[in-house]
Design a protein that fits this description.
By secondary structure, this protein is of the alpha+beta class. It has helices at 4-13, 24-30, 93-112, 120-135, 209-217, 268-277, 281-292; strands at residues 48-56, 60-69, 75-86, 139-151, 154-166, 173-181, 184-186, 197-205, 226-237, 240-250, 258-266, 295-297, 300-308, 311-314, 317-320.
Length: 322
């Protein structure tokens, strides 16, 4: 994953399967993975991780190369350069490396939709420590440069991805920003409909992070509800530009996700043409209806949208996209 705009992106850009889309809801949780000293490296049954050119201090770590793969070798993440930084006191060289590895492990799950139950307990323990760190007001950031995720013959390339997370000692919320650029796709259904760049700013309660982290990396069907507020979201491919804001109840299972918010699409005609070219005729018909009920504003098609139980409702008109 999505939140209101992420959900619309998911279904306006393609009706992709869980293992081929970029679930924004899951990617949000990646940002939580680097918020306190980690408790231990992941078990071998969860993932195999290696690094080259490691430069590490108590509050910063950078890797010239990183490789993460599932035990069966079917899914992997390679990163040419990764940098992780925290302002939290009490961190150690080992703990910051574990935090960076945890974030990267969740990135793999977010991009592929692959969930390994052997990772759940480890990620849940990480999340408990993360929640404490966020409530103490710590801030964290991670940057991945020139990364690639592969599952079987499917391939997702990432030019650059960055995440920043800040805790709040009063409200105990986590404020985050996410950015991804240079996205490329190979051997993925409807890949020409997916965005090449996406950015989001959002917040969520720190206390809700641990169980959702475990679900994203482990058992997606057992995820609890997490309440997210999106202050800004935008995604772009060629001349098609989607943006908006809203609120959502997120889980590791897209079918159990609901959202509402404000949505804008620039150049919707081109998007409809791309959907038709991908032979997604039902989706194209739904988008034509959406265009008819949209409001025009500054050259964009505008809606107040909700997503629930597989139905996207725009300006009061339900558009089933399953």
């Amino acid at each position: 994953m999505f939140v209101a705009q992420g959900l619309c992106l998911r279904h306006l850009y393609a009706q992709m399967k869980a293992h081929t889309i970029l679930p924004l809801a899951s990617l949000m949780l990646v940002s939580a993975a680097f918020a306190r000293p980690a408790l231990a490296a992941p078990p071998a049954s969860c993932a195999v991780i290696s690094h080259g050119g490691t430069h590490v201090t108590d509050q910063n770590v950078s890797f010239d190369t990183t490789s993460i793969r599932t035990p069966d070798g079917s899914t992997s993440l390679t990163i040419k350069q990764m940098t992780y930084t925290t302002t939290a006191s009490g961190s150690t060289a080992d703990s910051v490396q574990d935090q960076a590895d945890a974030a990267s492990l969740l990135l793999v799950s977010a991009l592929t939709g692959r969930h390994n139950p052997a990772c759940s307990a480890w990620l849940n323990k990480q999340g408990q420590s993360i929640a404490s760190g966020l409530k103490a007001g710590n801030t964290y950031s991670i940057v991945w440069n020139k990364a690639a995720v592969t599952h079987a013959s499917a391939h997702v390339g990432i030019g650059s991805a960055s995440l920043k997370l800040a805790g709040d000692t009063a409200a105990h919320n986590a404020a985050a920003t996410l950015g991804m650029t240079g996205l490329t796709f190979q051997n993925i259904p409807n890949q020409d409909l997916l965005p090449t760049a996406a950015h989001a700013a959002f917040s969520l309660p720190a206390s809700e992070i641990p169980a959702l982290m475990a679900a994203v990396g482990g058992k997606a069907e057992q995820a609890p509800a997490v309440h997210v507020t999106i202050s800004n979201f935008d995604a772009q491919r060629d001349t098609v530009h989607l943006k908006g804001n809203g609120t959502a109840t997120l889980t590791g299972n897209v079918n159990a996700t609901s959202a509402s918010g404000h949505l804008e699409v620039v150049n919707i005609e081109t998007l409809i043409e791309k959907v038709r070219a991908a032979n997604q005729m039902k989706l194209a018909a739904g988008m034509v209806l959406a265009r008819l009920v949209s409001h025009a504003q500054n050259g964009a098609s505008v809606w107040d949208a909700t997503w629930s139980s597989g139905v996207l409702t725009v300006n009061g008109f339900p558009l089933p996209l399953k």
